[in-house]
Write a structure and sequence with these properties.
34% of the residues lie in helices and 0% in strands. About 3% of the residues have low confidence. It starts with 39 loop residues before the first helix and ends with a helix. The chain is mostly helical. The chain folds into two domains: 99 residues, no CATH class; 50 residues, no CATH class.
Length: 172
């Protein structure tokens, strides 16, 4: 959300690059001069792998999609708040100079968690917000979801944070 301006873009990275985290978008680069990923799935995988490089020294579970993975000092930002170079006691970070960078990500997460939850009654009646239907359609069109008939009837179901983490972990 942070790097794409809530998918509005407007900086160095272009939407068709599938680069949601600005990997390789360095200060003074021209528009489009950043990593390009063959699909949204690979772009998200690269972003998660890049974060894992900062947070951990554990091996990746999938082939490395992040072209800058090898440049990261592994395990140097165990906390999101340390992703900004100036906020990191290890003298490294995702963002340079990055003062407050990680804290702003925590702020985005807090905002998401404060969003009102839909009632079970609303999901039971199939009252799914249009933005979710549009997102589903886009995922089907881009062949990220290969079994739309299975998922379409489940758009109103709730999912736990643990389930989201499980899905994300399987992309690493």
């Amino acid at each position: 959300m942070k790097e794409t301006g809530y998918f509005k873009y407007g900086g160095i990275v272009l939407p068709e690059q599938n680069n949601y985290s600005g990997i390789g978008a360095l200060n003074n680069n021209a528009k489009g001069e950043a990593a390009v990923f063959e699909s949204p799935r690979i772009g998200v995988r690269a972003q998660i792998q890049h974060l894992k490089a900062y947070a951990s020294t554990e091996a990746l579970k999938q082939p490395c999609a992040d072209p800058r993975f090898h440049l990261v000092k592994r395990g140097s930002a165990k906390y999101v708040e340390w992703l900004g170079y100036e906020d990191n006691p290890n003298g490294t970070g995702w963002a340079w100079p990055g003062k407050g960078y990680g804290y702003s990500i925590v702020g985005i997460l807090k905002g998401i968690l404060q969003e009102p939850k839909e009632s079970k009654e609303a999901t039971d009646t199939g009252n799914v917000p249009q933005w979710q239907k549009d997102a589903f359609k886009k995922l089907v069109e881009r062949k990220i979801i290969n079994s739309p008939e299975f998922w379409e009837g489940r758009l109103g179901e709730t999912i736990t944070i643990g389930e989201v983490m499980g899905i994300l972990a399987n992309t690493l």
